[in-house]
Amino acid sequence: MRVALKTKEYFDEIFEFTMECVEEDIATLQSNTKLKPYNRLAVAFRMVTYLLDMMHIRYSRGDAIQTLEQHLPRALEYREWQKNYADTLPESEQSDRVGWEELRQDYMGRFFKWFAFAYCVGMGDTYYRKMLDLTGNKGLDILFDSIAVKLGDTERPIGSKLLYPKRFKPLYQVIDAEPAQRPELMKAYLDAWYDLIGRPDYHLMDTDAYDGYWCWEAALVVKLYDIDDSSFSDHPYYPVDLVHYKES
Question: 248 to each of 24, 59, 123, 215, 217, how far by Cα in Å?
């Protein structure tokens, strides 16, 4: 267990439920031939989210990092399904795909989680290239684009501003700083992170909303920019085991 706020049995239960949701969605796409492209697009989007949730849950539960890798090829595959379903929308409905593909603030967080798992376990350049192509939204956000370039999308245009400065400016300051300043700035970001995401307090709710509080974008940036994390490696929101997986 990497968290102490819930029991292993709790995480077992929500993991099994999430896995069942994915299988049910696959069955829906395979059996319901009358399902419209827009609805298929929505189902595929949900499937990617479920897979990221499964990795999140398993990390909190204490699963070995190498066992999480199995979900990453499927995440890429289902994201491809999402794009293909969007491409088949009639011309008059193409604008409907925007809500599923735009760079919303919550979507950025999910993308960074995906990127963090993929990069920290070392999925490789081919995977990163496909992942970034499917993510799109090029040239819109200076933080997102800078990270994408660092991941290998070297021809990508870089936006001139932050789309969500209140949420992500402290993280951009980390990568924009001199290397020697980055550890201190990253620690400050981790200290502020729970407030930046709105202090959700899921662990206090009588629901299964809580799956562990992890700042995945910190793992991504630390690994990607080779930041010394010795001053914050024990931070409660920092997924240190993921960052140092390849070193163990």
Answer: 36, 16, 17, 21, 21
pLDDT-based confidence at residue 69 (cuts at 50, 70, 90): very high
87 phi and psi angles, rounded to 5 deg: -65, -25
Q: Is the same domain home to 115 and 141?
A: yes
Same domain (yes/no): 95, 154: no
Each residue of 127-177: pLDDT tens digit? 999 999 999 999 999 999 999 999 999 999 999 999 999 999 999 999 999
CB 106 within 8 A of CB 82: no
Structural domain containing residue 88: 1-101
Percent over 90 (pLDDT), the chain? 97
For residue 45, what are the contacts with CB-CB under 8 A and spacing of at least 6? 82, 100
Integer-rounded Cα Rg, in Å, for the chain is: 18
pTM: 0.96
By the 8 A CB rule, do 135 and 111 touch? yes
Number of domains in the chain: 2
